[in-house]
Amino acid sequence: MTYDGDITFGDHTWGIHGSSSGDAITTFTGTVSMKGLNGNYADISGIRFEGSSGTGLDAYCLASASECSFEGWDIAAYAHTGGWVNATDSTFTDNKIGLKFDTTMSYGSSPNYLNNTFTGNGTAVCIENLPGNEVLDFAGSTFSGNDVDIDNKAEHSVDTAKANFETASE
Questions:
Q1: How far is CA 40 from the centre of its chain?
Q2: What is the pTM of this model?
Q3: Nearest CA to 86 among 57, 48, 128?
Q4: Within 13 Å and on the Cβ side, how many CA atoms surround 98?
Q5: Distance CA 75, CA 83 (A)
Q6: How far is the C-alpha of 105 from the C-alpha of 20, rounded, in Å?
Q7: How many CB atoms lie within 10 A of CB 17?
């Protein structure tokens, strides 16, 4: 099932779980905005976010994505204005920015970014502003062929000791 156009999920706790049949998988081609506030959150799994510009996942609350793919966005997953995006076992491919944080407060946090793949992005992870002192842990994640792997303007604590950084073959 492919959902075209933007969709907004309001101020609730959400569980959004995709399904697949053969090569077909639940796909969103427009911006998915998570507007939950005051402790509400979104649990998202098995979704393909496939775009050609704009923002894929626009989080104003804690949004946890597992086994998702993000491809073709200006910003694939964006945490701002109280939001936090967590991703595990997900792929970020051919985006201008894969994962972006630009918030001075958040309604929740989840600092483990385990087993993700960031391939062919302009910037894989951009940290403009991010509150708290959690260490963002990228254990098991692979960074390959990005122009910039991690742009940490906020100088937030990041652990990449158990991440894989691959150089593009010529």
A1: 18
A2: 0.93
A3: 57
A4: 30
A5: 15
A6: 36
A7: 12
Residues 124-168: pLDDT tens digits? Answer: 999 999 988 999 999 999 999 999 999 999 999 999 999 999 975
- Please name which of 131, 146, 138 lies closest in space to residue 164, comparing C-alpha atoms: 138
Could you read off the pLDDT of 25-77 as tens digits, one per residue?
999 999 999 987 666 888 999 999 999 999 999 999 899 999 999 999 999 99
Q: 131 exposed, middle or buried (CB, 10 Å; 0-12, 13-18, 19+)?
A: middle
Q: Is 134 exposed, middle or buried (0-12, 13-18, 19+ CB in 10 A)?
A: middle
CB atoms < 10 A from the CB of 164, how many?
Answer: 13
Q: For residue 95, with 0-12 CB atoms within 10 Å meaning exposed, 13-18 middle and 19 or more buried, which class applies?
A: buried
What is the SS3 assignment for 111? coil
Question: And the tokens for 159?
Answer: 């652990």
Q: Read off the tokens for 101.
A: 């944080």
Q: Are 138 and 165 in contact (CB under 8 A)?
A: no
